[in-house]
Amino acid sequence: MKKQKLAILGSTGSIGTQTLDIVRQHPEKFEVIALSANSNWKLLAEQVREFNPEYTLIVNESHTKDLEKECTETKVLSGSEHLSDLASLKNVDTVLNALVGYAGFDSTLRAVQAGKRIALANKESLVVGGEIITEELKRSDAELIPVDSEHSAMLQCLAGESLDDIEKIIITASGGPFRTFTKQQMKEVTVEQALNHPNWNMGAKITIDSSTMMNKGLEIIEAHWLFDIPVHKIQPVIHPQSIIHSIITFIDGSSKAQLGLPDMKVPIIYALTYPKRLQLDTPRMDWNDVQNLTFEPVDYDKFPCVRLAMESIEKGGYAPAILNAANEVAVQRFLNKEIGYIHIPEIVEKSLANIDWNDSLNPETLKEIDKETRNYAKSITK
Ligand code: NDP
Ligand code: MG
Hints:
By secondary structure, the protein is an alpha/beta fold. It has 16 helices and eleven strands. It is 43% helix and 15% strand.
């Protein structure tokens, strides 16, 4: 059988390395054509030696020489402009986009235009440019398959169903490390505490987003675009055990859920093999273990980011892009210890209130609004 040829963007990150674990389990099914990292050239060089890609991209140009010296059998590229080139290589079937933030948007768009299967971890692509990407999808043979565990759950619940029969999507959220904190305690949260997620081991940006629950807000926007569903039909619910990855209720009152241990390899492999399945060697749930599956409502007062994200998509246009850019800056400023934890939603809210943009949506204006919002969000003082 023909091997599926992969370009893995962000191969040195949490999702990227887990994708390579899957490739390692199934060398007969997958072939790596391209890999990319931002600056971790040492891990990238190890991956090149193991997986032998035709192309290797290091975005941070100061490491190009190091990488070239270590890896002579691959074509080494450098600079962010090549990310979208890798996303549209002729001999690639599937682009796994595991970049972080707005930096992943161009690659998703180019992969769609090139008619690829896109295994999309980079949810920010759809948050900032969902309208542009879904319009392009209508014009191409590309397939956009989510890697995010909640959206993979939705896709699995939708097998054999019609989108018209969805009454409601219940998107589950762990609630993160501060679920039981008071608002007062939230004021004192440190970087170290916020980086310590109870159920998932992920990159820094999404870990902070999970703790503020901005991640759930971004995921609601992601679900809206993926399944063409209005936001008022998407209901977040806290499920601290992260066993049920999401639930869909249909118009006849029946609900389907998808369950499993919190393990990103399961949605990653499904995005690669959809609509089929492939054996995966990974821990299974023991259903004889006494387990409580519990649910509670989201506290929008304590986690304003969920509300801000939902409002931004209701507002439409550039609002979700402004939300995203302000959030990326605020998270980075918090990680740099320049601002306190509770300033993250404040920066997002101020940016949404003070930046307005009414031009029609296109990739160039998106770039401008992203830049303007970043400058504004950086300038906000405590
Ligand atoms: P990581 O931070 O672990 O990895 C990010 C990868 O992208 C690394 O290879 C990094 O390179 C590279 N990278 C980062 N910034 C840039 C940039 N500006 N330009 C080019 N390359 C860049 O992130 P995750 O793997 O955790 O997350 C990736 C995406 O998947 C995010 O959108 C996240 O929201 C989503 N996601 C992640 C989940 C998870 O469990 N981790 C779950 C669901 C979704 P380097 O190593 O050199 O820095
Ligand atoms: Mg998720």
